[in-house]
Structure formats: C-alpha cells, structure tokens
Design a protein that fits this description.
Layout: E1 2-5, E2 11-14, E3 17-25, E4 28-34, E5 45-46, E6 49-51, H1 58-70, E7 72-83, E8 96-107, E9 115-122, H2 136-149, E10 155-156
Parallel strand pairs: 3-8, 7-10
Antiparallel strand pairs: 1-2, 3-4, 3-6, 4-5, 4-9, 7-8
Amino acid sequence: MIECTFEDGNKNNLRHVVVDCLVLKEDKILLSKRSEKLLFEGGKWCLPGGFIEMDETIKDGARREVFEETGYEIKELKLLRIIDAYDRPNEDRQNVAFVYYGSAGERKGESDWETAEQKWFKFSDLPPKEKIAFDHYDSIQYYIKYKKEKFSLPYIK
C-alpha cells in the first residue's frame, strides 16, 4: 500500500499499479524465476513485470519491465486483462495489475537482480500452478483460452 497525504491533511492507503507481461515467441512463453532470497514469492516462476514509475504510462512501464527483467524488447503489446480484485492470491500490497501480451523482439540486454533464471516454456509444458507466483498462472490460462475463442479484450476481473 502507498500512504498518501491529501490537500485537506487526511491520510489514506492507496493501491499500487503494476504490469505483468506474457512475452511470446512461436508457441512458447518466457517465464522468469524470481530471486529466492530477495523477493516476495521468491523461487517461483512469474511473468516479467512490476511497478509503474512516476511520469510513465502503463504501456511504457510494461516495455521497461520486460526489458529490465529479461533483456528483450517487446513488440505488438496488447492489453489482455485488468485485475483489480483486492483479494488476489499471494499478494502483499493489493496491486492493480494490467496484464499485456506481445512478441519477443531482439534481446539487447541481460536480466536484472530480480531474475534468478529465465526459460521458454511450451504452453503444454508449463510449471505446475503452485510453482508460479501470484496469479500469473491464471493470466497464462486466460491467454490460452483467448487464443482458442477470440473474445473481446481486455477482460476486467
């Protein structure tokens, strides 16, 4: 939660805005393993993503987070879903997530300190749900469903 003081002096806790990104290449998705000793849900696989910074659009934040955590540029970024549920599983801050998907572009960098490992997974060979951080498994399953059924996006949960 973010503690904010308003013009009238009242203080309130507000929610964070985050992005999660499905980075795709052919029939595979790139997952990152979170640094075990340094991060909440460490040691689990996740979608690249993180907090939106000041003076940054959500889409620009998605591009930046993917690059920082994977070294890849991302192309054709599209909004898949918005998760504003306050009771998201394994969350410690009640984040509001904007979940994007896009194609992996050129790899021009290395992953940052948050990432212990990266791996391309076939959708048919994903890690088990309990080994994927937060509710990222649900976002991946939602993308799989979208590819089969082609319904309207974004989905708001």
